[in-house]
Design goal:
With 130 residues, the protein is an alpha+beta fold. The chain has a single domain, classed as 2-Layer Sandwich (60s Ribosomal Protein L30, Chain: A). The chain has helices at 49-66, 84-101, and strands spanning 2-6, 20-24, 29-31, 35-36, 74-81, 107-112, 122-129. Strands 3, 4, 5, 6 and 7 form a five-stranded mixed beta sheet that branches. It has a two-stranded antiparallel sheet with strand order 1-2. The longest helix has 18 residues, at 49-66.
Length: 130
Amino acid sequence: MKKTVFNPWTWQEQLSYVQAVEVTETTGTLYCAGQAAVHADGTSSDADMRTQLALAIQNLETVISDAGYECGNIVKLTIYSTSTDEFINKCFDIFREFVAKHDMKQAVTLLQVVALNDTLTIELDATVVR
């Protein structure tokens, strides 16, 4: 697989994402269902967004790993949040650590939604290549 990052500017580097990623010569593409703070028994977390984000990341890492892919090859990540303000001001450090841990270079979209399933406040939707 060959990945090329396009960043006409540098400001997005502080936000832990890139403007565009071109992927060629792939041997597979994994489209992950939205991963949220759902425990192994299927129950939704009712914890704060910060705690839910940590569990959602853990779940995303598990799905990607179980499929034989690597988080470092996430090329598109959509974040659904019931409060973008809370995500940016109280959770962004966890997101940055996740990106740094896997040396990710991914395009990101952050969306505020009215609600998610049950008591959930954050959901991660990823596309991963190999």
